[in-house]
């Protein structure tokens, strides 16, 4: 029996029950297998692997909708789940309800699943995890420890089916490796690291990752706090990706409709610098947000959200497209345990023409921001933020000193609106955002007074 | 009992079969109901059932963890064999067979589809928030009821089960004026079940969130720079949680990735600071009868009059560091191996009055309510957001400001707490770390920190 068989049987059982009772229902199921291995002090520290599954049902009766989920697949649990969903549907009446999609022939998307990852032996994975730590420790005696390092991989499969005949599934997998080192100079500790994610195990070079992590850490020794003041800032590509992730939900029509996004009423207006074009692209095999169809079963679409600074589109599910009179972008997202939301797949800022080096050279004094250390100081409703970063001070293109323990404050939309230069230095994605480095002037930094 | 002891004995034997000195099975059965309200009407009703097992084996300080939601005998034994095969330890440890199941905590709650009281409560929150002002443009309320049963069985003779019921109410409010939009938020959470919703004053919760949104709407930006900060009681305790608490967990200490490593018995804070992590407080959100390793929870004095007295120690942390277990092994659910985590963590009451602390500030910040935060235990660098803050000038609270965050390093900040107030308050929160999201409380009386970096505008 294949791993998927119990899930397929559960889906069939629920659909049959739905048809027998004349209940319109949609089943969403996921399975996941994962491995994670870490070393500490050159010894295996933790080895974890798992196999899990979850199934959820969404019931639509007229304009009523109810959801329930279960991790147990026996018939009694499935019956209870369906009864719960029907009971929940009695409580939720919507003016606009996501009706069942009756489409068929859902597309496939090559490149999201690499079967080679599943053939990698445990010994090879352990060797990668071992080397992540040992190569970092051996890089330089000043590396006191590798506080966090890990090799991990996961394979996930998602099924969607409904009583109108929709049936589809796809499989994705990826592997990752990271190392985060600690070094001390007698007065304080510094940390930094490197992470790589991909769908090709053979491209995870543990030694290279470890060396980059160690070198980045050592470069932070002697870090000081900057003086409080206004500075020109370059958000390095990875940090720009983090910032883009903070505002991803702003482009959801559902967020706009529910007043949680500040983009309400801004369609066709300038919201970003004219140097920024932003696209939601679900067709990038290497990016983790890619998908052949959305979580209602509609074929994926590529959508230009911001064109040369102007807001062109919002992301929609079927119901939000109807309700708001917008194009349907097939951006519904949900898991077995959640209701339908609207989310980006991969948000991509188009690369500009500037080399990072020339951006650094062009400023008398500029801070290159290399790490965002937390998101708590971001107020999503207004876009105001006061967030902790780390970086390096550059003067006339020359790196002067590493900087630590400071906050940058402002409004996130103002930051994207005030981008002066867009780099050409896009990297292979780590998640669902892709951005080059971005130069912004006159940002408020709180450090030492 | 979720899984019989005869099956669990076989699972432990399978886990130890290729050599390991400790094996543990964690079984979890969680049922959830969630209700949300948006735009003056019911928005969501979701019911769910999570069920799974985590199997953990040790050989010295090596740990193998597997998890599955196949709770059949065959499924559990297969998972145990997978764990054993991954370890291949040199020798098998002794097994002490548990003598019966010890049951702790609250009994499971009867399930019911009726949710009239929940929808009424959500309606009340919506009405109350909107009645605060015509500038309130959106209210979203959320209620969650969780019934969790955990069963822990190990090769050291532990077989314990605990029922944990939680309720959680949150409200978000949006206020808007002349194109400017701000949000307010409030929350309560505690050990309880659906019958306990009457203990929550939903109108107060919503009015509090609305008031916060309206006040922030009228506020100017906070100033930037270093200044004295008076941090109010309750969720203000997040400063200790972030600045110090995470650095005391053996998860960091064992890796030498904490600025508090090797400092037991040393002064790490001003002498006015005593800090406690207490899992025994009745009903509080971070309380437990047993931890997720089956250890009875306890009250742990972490810092006494500025001297570091204890770390926060789980089973593996104890193996790695040699420190005694503090009943602090916690995890979000069966998908996570337990690690050392905080429970209800607070700074004990001091002797200063609020007025005395205020009087000491020539120019500074009064942080009335806090948002979340984060820390890097290895460097001790932490930060957290301030939801509501006021400028203090010449000992008097002046105007409200918005957008502030605070940043510092743990030991430096603990040394700069110069006064501790009298009225201790606790607030519920959710803490995220390597073993997932767990319920905790943070708390403190008002504290005066003589210098902190405040993020804002120049």
Describe the protein's architecture and organization.
The complex is a heterodimer of chains A (449) and B (458). With 449 residues, chain A is an alpha+beta fold. Chain A is globular and about 70 Å long. Chain A has ten helices and 19 strands. In chain A, strand 15 and strand 16 (398-411) form a beta hairpin. In chain A, the strands form four sheets. A six-stranded antiparallel beta sheet of chain A has the order 3-2-1-4-5-6. In chain A, strands 7-14-15-16-19 form a five-stranded mixed beta barrel. By secondary structure, chain B is an alpha+beta fold. In chain B, 21% of the residues lie in helices and 43% in strands. Chain B contains nine helices and 23 strands. In chain B, strands 1, 2, 3, 4, 5, 6 and 7 form a seven-stranded mixed beta sheet that branches. The longest helix of chain B is centred in the N-terminal third of the chain and has 17 residues, at 116-132. Chain B starts with a helix and ends with a strand. Strand 3 of chain A pairs parallel with strand 2 (41-59) of chain B.
What portion of residues of chain A is helical? 10-25%
Number of helices of chain B: 9
Arithmetic mean pLDDT of chain B: 94
- What is the typical, i.e. mean, pLDDT of chain A? 95
What Rg of chain B do the Cα atoms give? 24 Å
Unreliable segments of 5+ consecutive residues of chain A = none
What would you call the shape of chain B? globular
- Estimated structural class of chain B: alpha+beta
Outline of the structure:
The complex is a heterodimer of chains A (449) and B (458). Chain A is an alpha+beta fold and 449 residues long. Chain A is built from 10 helices and 19 strands.
């Amino acid at each position: 029996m294949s791993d998927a068989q119990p899930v397929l049987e559960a889906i069939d059982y629920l659909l049959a029950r739905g048809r027998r009772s004349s209940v319109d229902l949609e089943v969403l199921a996921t399975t996941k297998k994962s491995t994670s291995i870490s070393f500490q002090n050159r010894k295996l520290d933790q080895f974890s692997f798992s196999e899990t599954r979850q199934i959820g049902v969404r019931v639509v009766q007229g304009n009523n909708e109810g959801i329930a989920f279960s991790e147990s697949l026996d018939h009694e649990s499935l019956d209870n789940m369906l009864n719960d969903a029907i009971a929940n549907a009695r409580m939720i009446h919507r003016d606009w309800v996501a009706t069942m999609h009756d489409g068929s022939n859902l597309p496939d998307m090559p490149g999201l699943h690499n079967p080679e990852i599943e053939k990698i032996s445990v010994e090879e994975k352990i060797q990668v995890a071992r080397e992540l730590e040992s190569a970092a420790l051996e890089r330089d005696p000043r590396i006191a420890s590798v506080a966090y390092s890990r090799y991990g991989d996961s394979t996930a499969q998602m099924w969607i089916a409904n009583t109108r005949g929709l049936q589809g599934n796809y499989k994705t997998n990826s592997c990752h490796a990271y190392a985060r080192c600690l070094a001390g100079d007698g007065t304080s500790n510094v940390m930094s690291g490197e992470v790589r994610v991909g769908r090709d195990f053979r491209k995870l070079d543990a030694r290279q990752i470890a060396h980059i992590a160690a070198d980045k850490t050592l470069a932070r020794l002697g870090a000081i706090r900057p003086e409080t003041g206004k500075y020109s800032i370059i958000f390095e590509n990875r940090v720009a990706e983090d910032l883009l992730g903070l505002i991803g939900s702003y482009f959801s029509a559902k967020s706009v409709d529910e007043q949680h996004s500040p983009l309400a009423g801004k369609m066709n207006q300038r919201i970003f610098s004219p140097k920024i074009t932003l696209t939601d692209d679900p067709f990038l095999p290497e990016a983790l947000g890619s998908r052949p169809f959305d979580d209602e079963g509609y074929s994926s679409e590529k959508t230009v959200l911001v064109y040369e600074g102007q807001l062109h589109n919002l992301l929609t599910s079927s119901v939000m497209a109807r309700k708001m009179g917008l194009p349907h972008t097939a951006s519904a997202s949900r898991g077995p345990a959640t209701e339908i939301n609207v989310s980006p797949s991969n948000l991509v800022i188009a690369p500009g023409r500037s080399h990072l080096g020339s951006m650094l050279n062009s400023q008398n004094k500029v801070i290159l921001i290399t790490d965002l250390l937390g998101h708590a100081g971001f107020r999503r409703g207004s876009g105001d933020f006061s967030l902790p970063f780390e970086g390096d001070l550059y003067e006339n293109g020359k790196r002067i000193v590493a900087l630590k323990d400071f906050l940058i404050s402002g409004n996130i939309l103002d930051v994207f609106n005030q981008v002066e230069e867009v780099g050409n230095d896009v990297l292979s994605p780590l998640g669902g955002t892709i951005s080059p480095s971005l130069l912004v002037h006159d940002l408020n930094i709180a450090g030492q007074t | 009992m979720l899984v019989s002891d005869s099956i669990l004995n076989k699972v432990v034997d399978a886990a130890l079969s290729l050599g390991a000195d400790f094996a543990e099975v964690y079984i979890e059965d969680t049922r959830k109901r969630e209700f949300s309200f948006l735009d003056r009407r019911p928005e969501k009703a979701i019911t769910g059932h999570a069920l799974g097992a985590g199997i953990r084996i040790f050989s010295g300080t090596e740990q193998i963890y597997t998890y599955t939601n196949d709770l059949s005998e065959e499924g559990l034994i297969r998972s145990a064999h997978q764990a054993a095969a991954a370890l291949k330890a040199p020798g098998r440890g002794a097994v002490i067979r548990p003598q019966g199941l010890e049951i702790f905590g609250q009994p499971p709650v009867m399930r019911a589809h009726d949710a009239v009281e929940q929808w009424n409560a959500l309606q009340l929150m919506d009405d109350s928030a909107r009645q605060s002002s015509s500038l309130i443009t959106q209210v979203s309320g959320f209620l969650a009821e969780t019934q969790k049963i955990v069963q822990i069985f190990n090769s050291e003779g532990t077989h314990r089960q605990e029922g944990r019921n939680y309720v959680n109410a949150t409200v978000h409010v949006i206020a808007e004026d002349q194109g400017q939009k701000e949000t307010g938020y409030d929350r309560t959470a505690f050990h309880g079940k659906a019958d306990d919703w009457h203990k929550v004053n939903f109108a107060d919760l919503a009015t509090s969130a609305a008031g916060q949104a309206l006040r922030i709407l009228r506020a100017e930006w906070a100033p930037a720079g270093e200044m004295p900060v008076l941090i109010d009681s309750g969720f203000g305790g997040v400063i200790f949680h972030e600045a110090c608490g995470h650095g005391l967990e053996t998860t960091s200490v064992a890796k030498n990735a904490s600025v508090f490593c090797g400092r037991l018995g040393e002064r790490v804070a001003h002498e006015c600071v005593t800090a406690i992590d207490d899992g025994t407080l009745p009903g509080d959100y971070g309380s437990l009868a047993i931890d997720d390793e089956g250890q009875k929870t306890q009250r742990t004095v972490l810092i006494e009059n500025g001297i570091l007295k204890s770390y926060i120690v789980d089973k593996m942390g104890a193996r790695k560091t040699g420190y005694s277990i503090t009943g602090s092994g916690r995890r979000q659910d069966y998908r996570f191996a337990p690690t050392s985590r905080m429970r209800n963590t607070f700074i004990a009451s001091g002797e200063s009055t609020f007025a005395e602390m205020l009087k000491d500030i020539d120019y500074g910040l009064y942080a009335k309510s806090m948002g979340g935060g984060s820390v890097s235990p290895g460097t001790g660098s932490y930060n957290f957001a301030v939801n509501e803050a006021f400028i203090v000038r010449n000992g008097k609270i002046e105007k409200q400001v918005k957008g502030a965050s605070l940043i510092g390093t743990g030991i430096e900040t603990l040394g700069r707490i110069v006064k501790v107030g009298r009225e201790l308050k606790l607030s519920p929160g959710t803490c995220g770390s390597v073993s997932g999201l767990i319920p905790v409380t943070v708390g403190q009386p008002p504290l005066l920190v003589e210098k902190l970096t405040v993020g804002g505008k120049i």
